[in-house]
Recover the amino acids of this structure.
């Protein structure tokens, strides 16, 4: 929509009235009324319901380092439950997962109460 179409959709009385609020003529932080926002510009909610358990939580909530997180994602490990089911032998065979990343995962799992 062009700006002229937006303005023409308002009643003519609203277009001709000056802003007559408590701060009329002064700059005190109050703003004049705004034009309505078209529905196509209003953001829709992207909120997802909370997982049923901690095991179903996405791996992004684990707060692992980026390198460790990316290596796990490339190995198709996407939830904390899948991470907790891995053994130390499984971790050693994952590609791009070195000793530091293995220590980080071991420490995270120990903090969760699910040691290797």
């Amino acid at each position: 929509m062009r700006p002229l179409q937006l303005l023409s959709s308002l009643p003519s009385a609203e277009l001709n009235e000056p802003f007559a609020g408590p701060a009329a003529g002064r700059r005190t932080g109050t703003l004049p009324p705004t034009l309505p926002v078209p529905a196509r510009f209003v953001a829709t909610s992207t909120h997802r319901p909370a997982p049923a358990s901690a095991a179903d939580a996405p791996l992004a909530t684990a707060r692992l380092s980026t390198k460790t997180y990316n290596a796990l994602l490339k190995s198709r490990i996407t939830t904390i439950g899948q991470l907790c089911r891995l053994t130390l032998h499984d971790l050693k065979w994952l590609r791009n997962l070195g000793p530091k990343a293995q220590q980080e995962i071991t420490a995270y799992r120990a903090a969760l109460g699910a040691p290797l």
Notes: The first helix runs from residue 3 to 8. The domain at 54-112 is CATH 1.10.150.20 (DNA polymerase; domain 1).
